[in-house]
Amino acid sequence: MGLEKRTVKIIVIVAVVLLVIGAILGLILGLLLHQRYVELEVWPRSEEYTWEQPLIQFRPSDTGSWHPWYKRMNDFLRAYETTIPEDPPRAPCSTRNRRDDPIRSNNCEIAMRMWGPCTADEFYGYSMGRPCVFLRLNHIHYWVPHPYNVSTSLSIPTEMPENIKQFMMQRPAQTYGDYVWVSCGGEYNSDKENIGPIQYIPAGLPPGFPLSRLHTADKIPYANRNLPDQVPPPLIAVYFENPRREVLINVECRIWTRDIYYDQSSRVGRARFELFVNQ
Ligand SMILES: *[C@@H]1O[C@H](CO)[C@@H](O)[C@H](O)[C@H]1NC(C)=O
Are 219 and 144 spatial neighbours (Cβ–Cβ below 8 Å)? Predict the structure, then answer.
């Protein structure tokens, strides 16, 4: 009888310990997956950057207020500097203003023109109150995207922005390759009114990330998936042509693929930030 009691006790203790360990592991895994799975990054970021309150605020007429953003942008883009940009260029090839950079290569000059006005030459638009932000995907080594295209009979969501649908029609995936499409807009109704026109830069190229340049799970051997990328991921710039001044504008950006479901509370493939342009 005594022995049995002890056995029961041990079984109960082991069970409880296992449950606790399981719960902790589950929680950690859940948190990791939640935050680490297909992140859409927004740049520039301040030192105090948090996902909840990522504020970009400046006064175009006050150099001291926008210059830190210009500097942060350059710090971020330095990893992409090159004298031999790809075609089309993956990012602005120089982080120096034209006046300080007189001996640019011809190819870099062309690349800079394609990325205009989101270049150091134009202070990324901040001096004019027309800021650019850069977007890129991170934590995609374990992801195989299922792109939206018109090559298959699978339907395209009706709420997809018109500009993406047009690109999909005009540049069929069989010829031009597949994209992880991107769109940005005001988060709430008032933001939609205040945000003004948006352009995706380079203008004339599809608004998104070409699958051919993304290091997704289908392109890297299993053993290398936790290694960092040799080449930084491709960028797309979003240019706010005329955001209303003196109001906080909540901006939401998201990617469009068949396998990532849109959910306003999710961080997977979705980013938000706040824009405040002072008068
Ligand atoms: C088009 O989309 C489908 C479904 O996501 C995908 O399987 C296919 O590889 C894509 N590309 C082409 C060129 O069909």
Answer: no
